[in-house]
Structures are given as C-alpha cells and as structure tokens.
C-alpha cells in the first residue's frame, strides 16, 4: 500500500512527539477514513506499542 497525504496530520503528531513529554490525542472520524493507518504510520519509525482495545472476549 502506498500511504498518501496525511502530511499535516503526521507533522502535527511528530511536532508533539519531539517535545518528549506526554500528550493525549483524540483521533476521530467515520470508519475507513484512515485513523488506524495514520497511527500505524506515525509509530513506524518509533519505539512503540500498538494495542487495540476492542470488544473481543478473553478466549478469542
Ligand atoms: N493515507 C492513506 N493512503 C492510502 N491508503 C490508506 C490511507 N489511510 C488509510 N488507508 C487504507 O484505507 C483503509 C481504511 O483505513 P483505516 O486506517 O483502517 O481506517 P479507520 O481506522 O479510520 O477505520 C485501509 O485499507 C488502509 O490501509
Ligand atoms: Mg480503525
């Protein structure tokens, strides 16, 4: 997949990242607009943990 656009969003996240202090971001929008992908692209070059808290039960 070729990741396109989202320059403004990535720049904004990276600017905060460089401050080296905690920040809290709320990313919202309709489904399939690219929220998850944006987070994954942002984290790609960083030491990070991605954890999706979904509604699966423990067994699954
Ligand atoms: N900037 C982008 N460029 C290309 N494809 C993208 C981009 N953002 C998302 N996609 C693709 O669009 C689909 C939906 O994105 P996704 O991040 O899962 O949306 P959301 O989390 O908002 O529901 C995925 O297949 C993803 O790979
Ligand atoms: Mg998503």
List the helices and strands and how they pair.
Layout: H1 7-18, H2 35-43
This protein binds adenosine-5'-diphosphate (ADP) and magnesium ion (MG).
Protein architecture, described:
The chain is mainly α and 60 residues long. It contains two helices and no strands. It has helices at residues 7-18, 35-43. The chain is globular, with a radius of gyration of 13 Å. The chain has one domain (1-60). The model has no long low-confidence stretch (mean pLDDT 94). It is 35% helix and 0% strand. It binds adenosine-5'-diphosphate and magnesium ion.
Which structural class should the secondary elements be placed in? mainly alpha
Q: Quick one: overall form?
A: globular
Report the mean per-residue pLDDT as an integer: 94
Order of helices and strands: HH
The biggest sheet, with number of strands, parallel, antiparallel or mixed sense and barrel status, is:
none
- Share of helical residues: 25-40%
What's the short version?
With 60 residues, this protein is mostly helical. Helix content is 35%, strand content 0%.
Q: What labels describe this entry?
A:
binds adenosine-5'-diphosphate; about 60 residues; 2 helices; binds magnesium ion; mainly alpha; about 0% strand
